[in-house]
Amino acid sequence: MFELPVATAIYCSLVGIVFLCSWLYYDRRDHARFEQERRQTTFHCIRCDRIYTARGAPALCPCPRCGHENSHLRF
Asked: 32-35, long-range: CB within 8 Å, 24+ apart, which pairs?
């Protein structure tokens, strides 16, 4: 059907494409997980004067010490 050099070139190209697609998929997935873990919002409790963080970007978050809901810091 194909001569050996042509079949080898096609096989190597297909293997290369599979590795490239796998690399791109896992790189994007890991980057999204890292960004989600890295993003934190800083809060300052006006009741007990504690500074704390929460993952993501919530507008309000209760203080871990006293439970008072505070809005995020704006710089």
From this structure: none
- The angle formed by the CA atoms of residues 35, 38 and 44, to the nearest 5 degrees, is 135
Q: Tens digit of pLDDT for each residue in 5-15?
A: 999 999 999 99
Written as six digits, the tokens of 67 are 């439970």
Contact 72, 43 (CB under 8 A): yes
CA 75 – CA 69 distance, rounded (Å)? 19
Which residue do the tokens 């790189």 mark? 27
Full-model pTM: 0.52
Task: Provide the 8-state DSSP code for 36.
Answer: H
Question: 3-state DSSP call for residue 4?
Answer: helix
Average pLDDT, the chain: 91
